[in-house]
Design goal:
Blueprint (H helix, E strand, L loop, with lengths): L4 E10 L6 E11 L4 E5 L6 H8 L7 E6 L2 E2 L5 H11 E4 L11 H11 L6 H10 L15 H14 L4 E5 L7 H17 L3 E6 L2 H4 L4 E6 L2 E3 L6
Parallel strand pairs: 3-8, 3-9, 6-7, 7-8
Antiparallel strand pairs: 1-2, 1-4, 4-5, 9-10
Helix pairs in contact: 3-5, 4-5
The structure holds adenosine-5'-triphosphate (ATP).
Length: about 230
């Protein structure tokens, strides 16, 4: 079977002996197309490092990452940038919105960067579901943290990427809104057969996924509730 995301013996070390940090220490992860997987672990366990590797944002010390069957270590920077933009939607903790663009422009930016036509009715539906209709002309600075996060989620969904990688996507939302946003992410990813990988330290949110991957000290550990 070909997985949409697959790592083999993935290692990421920072620094050098004797002060080496093994952020990832031999990680084998497989994610099936359309799956919703949460990666859960305590602070410093390696979650963000793993997500960055799965999204081709960082280079492994050793081991491999395959996205859609393609080994990303074999692509040059430009190929990887285009590949990422076409296949992966990112939702970061800190939103990464463009401050000089308004909400609507931020949402459709990745589509336009790729020279594609905006599916207006789809984007409108995302905007409605994320309660952003009234904010489309606002600049990010004029929004609350939670609103900015919803814009970031809308942007990730708008280009219908095959894969959505989310790093604590609801970290700045209250618990009720977090659950709502998570349900929305789950609903849209199911509707468009998207693969969703989300990292969190919140067990309640992690359980919304089809499957949980536990990480401790840079290693995947098996837990009973996975089965
Ligand atoms: N650029 C870096 N340089 C040195 N060490 C790093 C770097 N990035 C991460 N680390 C270390 O690697 C380990 C894993 O970090 P990572 O950010 O992946 O953890 P995390 O599980 O996402 O944590 P958190 O939940 O706090 O965001 C930590 O010990 C961290 O200090």
């Amino acid at each position: 079977m070909e997985y949409i995301l697959e790592t083999k013996n993935l290692k990421k070390y920072y620094g050098q002996e004797p002060n080496i940090t093994r952020a990832l220490d031999g990680v084998d992860v497989q994610v099936e197309r359309g799956e919703f997987v949460s990666i859960i672990g305590t602070s410093g366990s390696g979650k963000s490092t793993l997500l960055n590797m799965l999204g081709g944002l960082d280079i492994p010390s050793s081991g491999s990452v395959k996205i859609g069957g393609r080994e990303i270590g074999k692509m040059n920077d430009e190929q990887l940038t285009v590949f990422r933009r076409r296949n992966i939607g990112f939702v970061f903790q800190n939103y990464n919105l463009v401050p000089i663009l308004n909400v609507y422009q931020n949402i459709v930016l990745p589509i336009e960067l790729d020279g594609n036509k905006v599916d207006k009715s789809y984007v409108k539906e995302i905007i409605r579901l994320l309660h952003l209709e009234e904010k489309l002309d606002n600049l990010p600075n004029n929004l609350s943290g939670g609103q900015q996060q919803r814009v970031a989620i809308a942007r990730a969904l708008a280009s219908k990427p095959a894969i959505i990688l989310a790093d604590e996507p609801t970290g700045n939302l209250d618990s009720r809104t977090s659950l709502e946003v998570m349900q929305l992410l789950k609903m849209t990813s199911t509707e468009f057969s998207q693969t969703l990988v989300m990292i969190t330290h919140n067990p309640e949110l992690a359980q919304i996924a089809d499957r949980m991957i536990h990480i401790e000290d840079g290693k995947i550990v098996e837990r009973k509730e996975n089965f």
